[in-house]
């Protein structure tokens, strides 16, 4: 009798593949959210492993805020083309133009405006399930998530109205108009993601590695200087060698000074880090409840 023992990463991979296959079995029109960021890169590899040699049985969906790092969008398009997977892109710009998304006076970040854009895309393609790369270790609101996160007919999330998940059994039952968000990486950490990238030798956008970039110091972090983040009067632009740990809106994604040029360097850096990954995201600092409020409204 063989005694098979999975190591930590193999266990996480097996769990995530099981969740992926449950989605394919239970839902008629699933989609996989793909931004080109490190978590969604792992999701894509897991989907390959879950369904190969068949094609991945769902399209990729990306909500483009118009404030993405260009390196990320280039990588997104490159990877989808490599795998021959259908990539659906819906933009906040279009949602603003057609009145679906309405910016508040003076609102600069487009995080909130992703919500109506995503909900409209779900309605347009009649997606009954969207797979995302959120992890419970990222911040407090996400720690409340289950693998299968139920959303009502308005796309809203109620943390008190989630279904029990006992013995890895998932209740995927939906009424018309309702949908599910599924998070196969729920039990992964930032370290697990990078160790998996190393193990699978996955390609990632160069922005995750140290590179020279012009930055300004603002709100206690280094922000990349660009057309959307011009320096304010009195701010000093500095040429730094930086990288990003987590990628969001270009106007709110902080850079960290780092010499990390390889995946091994990044893993060593994370092991020594004393600041959380999302500590470099200005949009999460506005209020501890900000993410939960956005999630309740339909944010991913």
Kindly describe this structure.
The protein is an alpha/beta fold. The chain folds into 2 domains: 8-193 and 289-297, HUPs (Rossmann fold); 202-283, no CATH class. It has 9 helices and 10 strands. The chain has helices at residues 8-26, 38-51, 70-83, 92-97, 114-125, 190-200, 263-272, 282-285, 290-297, and strands at 30-33, 60-64, 87-91, 129-131, 148-151, 179-182, 211-218, 221-224, 238-243, 256-257. The chain has a 6-stranded mixed β-sheet, with helices on both faces. Strands 8-7-9-10 form a 4-stranded antiparallel β-sheet, with no helix packed on it. Strand 2, helix 3 and strand 3 (87-91) form a beta-alpha-beta unit. Helix 1 packs across helix 2 (38-51), helix 2 crosses helix 6 and helix 6 (190-200) packs antiparallel against helix 7. The longest helix has 19 residues, at 8-26. Residues 283-288 have low confidence and may be disordered.
List keywords for this structure.
300 residues; alpha/beta; Rossmann fold; 2 domains; four-stranded antiparallel beta sheet; 9 helices; 33% helix; globular
Overall number of domains = 2
Number of strands: 10
The name of the CATH superfamily of the largest domain reads: HUPs
β content, as a range?
Answer: 15-25%
Assembly of the depicted chains: single chain
- What is the fold named in CATH at topology level of the largest domain? Rossmann fold
Class of the largest domain, according to the CATH hierarchy?
Answer: Alpha Beta
Q: Which spans of ≥5 residues are poorly predicted at pLDDT below 50?
A: 283-288
Strand order of the largest sheet: 3-2-1-4-6-5
Give average pLDDT, whole number: 82
CATH architecture of the largest domain: 3-Layer(aba) Sandwich
The share of residues in helices is 25-40%
The major pleated sheet works out as:
6 strands, mixed
Order of helices and strands: HEHEHEHHEEEHEEEEHHH
Number of helices: 9
């Amino acid at each position: 009798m063989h005694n098979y023992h999975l190591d930590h990463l193999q266990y996480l991979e097996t769990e995530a593949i099981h969740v992926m296959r449950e989605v394919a079995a239970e839902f008629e029109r699933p989609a996989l959210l793909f931004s080109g960021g490190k978590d969604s890169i792992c999701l894509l590899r897991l989907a390959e492993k879950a369904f190969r040699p068949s094609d991945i049985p769902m399209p990729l969906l990306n909500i483009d805020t118009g404030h993405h790092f260009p390196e990320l969008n280039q990588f997104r398009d490159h990877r989808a083309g490599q795998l021959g997977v259908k990539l659906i892109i819906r933009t906040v710009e279009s949602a603003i133009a057609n009145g679906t998304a309405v910016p508040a006076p003076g609102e600069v970040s487009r995080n909130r405006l992703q919500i109506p854009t995503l909900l409209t895309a779900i309605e347009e393609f009649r997606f009954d399930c969207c797979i995302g790369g959120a992890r419970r270790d990222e911040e407090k609101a996400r720690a409340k998530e289950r693998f299968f996160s139920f959303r009502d007919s308005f796309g809203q999330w109620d943390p008190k109205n989630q279904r029990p998940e006992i013995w890895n059994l998932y209740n995927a039952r939906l009424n018309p108009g309702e949908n599910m968000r599924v998070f196969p990486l729920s039990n992964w950490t930032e370290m697990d993601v990078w160790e998996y990238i190393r193990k699978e030798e996955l390609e990632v956008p160069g922005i995750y590695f140290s590179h020279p970039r012009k930055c300004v110091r603002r709100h206690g972090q280094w922000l990349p200087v660009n057309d959307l983040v011009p320096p304010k009067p009195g701010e000093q632009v500095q040429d730094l060698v930086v990288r990003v740990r987590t990628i969001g809106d270009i106007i709110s994604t902080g850079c960290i000074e780092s010499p990390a040029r390889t995946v091994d360097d990044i893993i060593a850096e994370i092991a020594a880090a004393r600041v959380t990954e999302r500590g470099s995201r200005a949009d999460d600092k506005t209020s501890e409840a900000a993410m939960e409020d956005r999630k309740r409204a339909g944010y991913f």
